[in-house]
Amino acid sequence: LGADGNAKVLVITSASPSEGKTLTAVNCATVMAQQGTKVLLVDADLRRSSLHHNLGISKEPGLGDILNGRCTADEAVVAVENIPHLSVVSSGGGVAYPSEALASEAMTAALRRWRNEYDHIVIDTPPVAMVADAVVLAAQADSVLLVAMASGTTRQALSRTRDLLLRANARIAGVVVNGVDQRYENHYYCAYARSGARSEGGYGPD
Asked: Which of 33, 59, 107, 167 has the smallest set of CB atoms within 10 Å of its CB?
């Protein structure tokens, strides 16, 4: 993760909805945990959360409850029984202003505590084109992984997303392309991720 391979906090986001970012976050965290590292997966999509459904765990308590002061950063953590070394923080109860809450001292304090307790923290965030939440968290992360859908994400959408993240001084580690049709040899998005994206702003498949 990241250029130096030592990134601890990884934000996973996309340009638009329905590009597979939550599934990518789950898969990424699972692979890390299976390698024996202690991993925390955090659902920071406080508006349209789905991580708890994917893993079959309760939505509350979770991140929203931490940010509202209803529970501590430790009280919201749930161990995933069938995946050793993996723990999860669901989205939790709602917050009035998610972007402001994610930029708050409570979020910074939670991340600081988790950094001391886990080898890797994977954060699932809303799409960048929809709200500022992902950009806020990307500024506090060590690396950002963009998720795109081969059949739907445009070059322009990826470029806008990249620019917004770079303005926040985010470190973009790479692009995951979902839904690639293996029957075709020339994949527009794979070519973009391997060449154009890197030359234009620093994100490729590394």
From this structure: 167
